[in-house]
Amino acid sequence: MKFLCLGYFDQEKMDARPESEIHAVMELCQPHLEEFYKSGQVIMDAGLSLESKCMRRENKKVTITDGPFTESKEMIGSVFLIEARDMEDAIRIASLHPTTQVGEGEQFGWRLEIRPIHYFEKKQQQ
């Protein structure tokens, strides 16, 4: 089963810190990322830019608006896709991620959301 994990942070808290401090905290993430990848269950891991666009179709017209789109201070900063037996296993794997391993991330409001993925695959024709 596949799970999409979303890593959140508090933009205001990050903006309030000097860049050197943020960089130092991010450096602490590397050994934890290596352990996370060693699990063999990480399919994809990516950081997201703050720039975003939203495309919406309404009244037969597509509109494009600037993001971010959250109503809160929290922003999605990373996404990763993992393979796990069930939610309990997904939590175990996600707990290896720096979001939960690097205590210094607390000052930036780091947190993870884990969601099972339900997707459709095109059936092979024989």
Number of domains: 1
User: In CATH, what is the class?
Assistant: Alpha Beta
> How many β strands by DSSP?
6
Quaternary assembly = single chain
CATH superfamily: Dimeric alpha+beta barrel
**CA-to-CA gap between the ends?**
26 Å
Structural class: alpha+beta
CATH topology: Alpha-Beta Plaits
Number of helices: 4
Helix content: 25-40%
Shape category = flat
Topology:
Blueprint: E1 2-10, H1 11-15, H2 19-38, E2 42-47, E3 53-58, E4 61-66, E5 74-83, H3 87-94, H4 98-101, E6 111-116
How would you describe this structure to a colleague?
This protein has 126 residues and is of the alpha+beta class. The protein has a single domain, classed as Dimeric alpha+beta barrel (Alpha-Beta Plaits), CATH 3.30.70. The strands form 2 sheets. A 4-stranded antiparallel β-sheet has the order 2-5-1-6. The chain has a two-stranded antiparallel sheet with strand order 3-4. It starts with a strand and ends in a 10-residue tail after the last strand. The model has no long low-confidence stretch (mean pLDDT 90).
